[in-house]
Amino acid sequence: MLKTPYLLFLGDAPDPLAAKVAQGIRDWRPEYALGQLRLAGCQADMKLPDMSVEQAVAQGAKTLVIGVANRGGVISEKWLEVLEQALAAGMDIASGLHNLLRDEPRLVAAAERHGRQLIDVRVPQVKYPIADGKPRAGKRCLAVGTDCSVGKMYTALALDSALKARDVKSSFRATGQTGILITGEGVPLDAVVADFMAGSIEWLTPANDEDHWDIIEGQGSLFHPSFSGVTLALIHGGQPDALILCHEPTRTHMRGLPEYALPSLEQLRETALTMARIVNPSCRVIGVSVNTAGLDEQEAERYLADLEARLELPCVDPFRQGADRLAGELSS
Amino acid sequence: MLKTPYLLFLGDAPDPLAAKVAQGIRDWRPEYALGQLRLAGCQADMKLPDMSVEQAVAQGAKTLVIGVANRGGVISEKWLEVLEQALAAGMDIASGLHNLLRDEPRLVAAAERHGRQLIDVRVPQVKYPIADGKPRAGKRCLAVGTDCSVGKMYTALALDSALKARDVKSSFRATGQTGILITGEGVPLDAVVADFMAGSIEWLTPANDEDHWDIIEGQGSLFHPSFSGVTLALIHGGQPDALILCHEPTRTHMRGLPEYALPSLEQLRETALTMARIVNPSCRVIGVSVNTAGLDEQEAERYLADLEARLELPCVDPFRQGADRLAGELSS
In this protein, which residues make up the domain named D-glutamate N-acetyltransferase-like C-terminal (chains A, B) (predicted)? Predict the structure, then answer.
């Protein structure tokens, strides 16, 4: 879907967190990340060569990826100038911003003039089918969370890497705009029309070799009232053989919903398995991925050890420890 | 949303079943149904006065409602002529067809020329919010099914009528195109973008008097892999105080999915309550609605009696018996 390699546009990022898309590409697909372009005042740095648009094109860059969020919701004059230059120099532009590239007349005109593509990865590019629920060859693993934003994408990317390191056939399947920008393809599930949600996931994870794993990025949570329907469509479209439970232990309530407490991991296990076994009776939970960024090293180790004793499942923080133990559960 | 009263357009319906939208309006909102317009060969009859477009307008009809399905997926020349006449005579046109009125250049031109509206109820007309999950005043009841198309809309409409007959404040809340055409408003949930599904249901069922019931039309089934995400969004957006389980006892597999058996009513009760209690801990199942059209009178009575003993819940067929027993559970 996206042509590689990329020039990562960091704009005038107010802090490193704003550039999490660029960071994701840098971490997970470094071979795509040719260089970075930063404007005055940029507070993010991917430790990549700084490049102008012209330098990047000269070195082979095919797509400028907007690697930074613009919270204000407006594509600024300063950005537009650089983006027009990129189109003129021969690059496509890819973006996961809420405000779409295609809604900027200057960019639309420049893209047409120079024969380049504007790729808004939030907008579905495909007419997805309605799900038919039929079993298909190959194996699938899905990350499900006690809440939104607890590390499901990170977990899936880390697991995909760990499987590849073991020479197990594996594909990361992106279901959100960050994942799509990182890997260059996927389904922007939260923007798909209701009737086609599960079908879009069947489309994303088609029949494959019997020993191939699709590692599917999770979205939302069965326990998050705003987005639970998206999560269930993902479970029923993905027909997972394996689930990984994802959790952030310092979260005090569901993201954005002060009225809602998080479920326990036991509740998540029970509910997610019940729903998954409707489409795949042999589905099992193979481990727990904990984002322990809010704990110090010792607290994290104790938390994971206690949890492992309690749940009798491998419990890891893939950021601190990698995902090889989870990969072992899939490849054994 | 739709102006009443209606002229019901039955077209050249090949059989009575094809006119189920018209039948629904005739059954549930007879005060909206001024007359019917039938073309040569029409095999459906609502036992309403046959009217031409001009006669209907003279008697006050405001909207021509397409009350019949066109399986071929094309709006035929014969239809277009009548629909153009209706616009010229001063009526709006409302439709739940897959092929949209707005995609017919002749109708678009005629509507513009005569200052009339083309209302495709399958297309969301509103920018829905993301659900915030906040509790709100008033009571809500939702119909959930073991499968799609087991009588959830009929059950909700019958319950709404039965509550009104008891002088209980009640509103039927439509979530599909047939329900929207019958009652003139609602949310076409299966066409809403994933992120906004639950929010559209919060919008549809806002805070109300403490003794008011929203009776929410169900969609899909938690156990139907193609549409389960829609169902869960409905449960989490609707925050139901009460659930009614809907079932069709002669169904041999999930609709359209020969690989999938139906869940038991016990499984549905357990799963739907678990999911509903995430947003409304006091939610309870108040009864079962069975579509016994496939059973004779005696079989139906025996089935309902056995089921009632098994589940210890009121079990009724609202088509045969009305929904007063269910209404009694809500108003007691």
Answer: 130-326
